[in-house]
Input
Amino acid sequence: MSLRIGVIGYGYWGPNLVRNFATGARTKVVAIADANPSRRQLAQAHYPHIKVVEDAAALIADPDVDAVVVATPIFTHYDLAKAALQAGKHVLVEKPLTPSAAQAEELALLAEQHKRVLMVDHTFVYTGAVKKIRDLVSSGELGRVLYFDSVRINLGLFQPDFNVIWDLAPHDLTIMDYVVSQTLGVQAKWVSAIGASHYGRHENLAYVTVGFEDQLIAHVHVNWVAPVKTRRTIIAGSKRMLVWDDTSPVEPVKIYESSVDVQHIDKESAYALNVQYRSGDIHSPKLDGKEALSVMVQTFAAACLDGAASPSDGAVGVRIVKMLAAAQQSLEQQGARVKL
Ligand SMILES: NC(=O)c1ccc[n+]([C@@H]2O[C@H](COP(=O)([O-])OP(=O)(O)OC[C@H]3O[C@@H](n4cnc5c(N)ncnc54)[C@H](O)[C@@H]3O)[C@@H](O)[C@H]2O)c1
Output
């Protein structure tokens, strides 16, 4: 049985979703809605056999649609996802789920009440690199995780309605949530953020820190005004350290046989330390090269058709929005720690 999909939004990201849902083994696209006539024309030219409509409400009401995919700008997610859930459809929403934590929680509750799947397209958790990193963390290869450090900067597209945190940090926070919170079973406790808006109302640069218990700390640097494109994550463990360079076409994940061992020779003196540095081989694991969106599409189909679990379900979507909202609040309070 195929899951019949209706996609709302055929702008920049929507076509990638339509392509993957159209070719998915257990999914087929039966309808596309976009308010913009030129985007509808393009969709119809690419997919002459698929219904293309202007009105999202008509797609949601369409009895041929089992599941609705919301690929429109963030401020429209809540209304569209709510209408789709109330119409009894499964729903996949683009990241981030909503612009407010209360709206995200309401959608998760609605999905539960209607016994429908609510999933968020946190694309990165479906990449081969992130799955490998998750395996390395869960198998204990890195030892105790000390910190997570992520940089996502370039000459980025300024967004008119929101700042760089809401645009880029969902990626880093969802990767962190997957490889740290979901894998180790630890939850973030607080968020602090500072930023700068050099060109207008919205911050184009931000440094976000997320605190866990036990000295585990995460840091995310997002920036639309940088001369180079950097997509780099470092996870330091007590046994090994890992660097993921997502811009590298070869060996993007490298594991360093590097660690530090500190012995306190004299507990009374802070200076009496015996520090052993270990710096050995570097190796690069083989990664699953499947397109992340195709894996995400299969996961969504399995959630809707078989009731299977997913690493980007509504509850994760809510957690990420809470972190983003806390980062926003902290920004407005000059970096004060905001409890989660
Ligand atoms: N997962 C990822 O890596 C990734 C990458 C890029 C964008 N996104 C997300 O995808 C979503 C869309 O981003 P985009 O860059 O494609 O935006 P976009 O502005 O390029 O496209 C949005 C499209 O939705 C249409 N639209 C808006 N409101 C509508 C409505 N009520 N009914 C019907 N059509 C409507 C617009 O006409 C437009 O064609 C955002 O949530 C964004 O965060 C995710």
Observations:
- The radius of gyration is 22 Å.
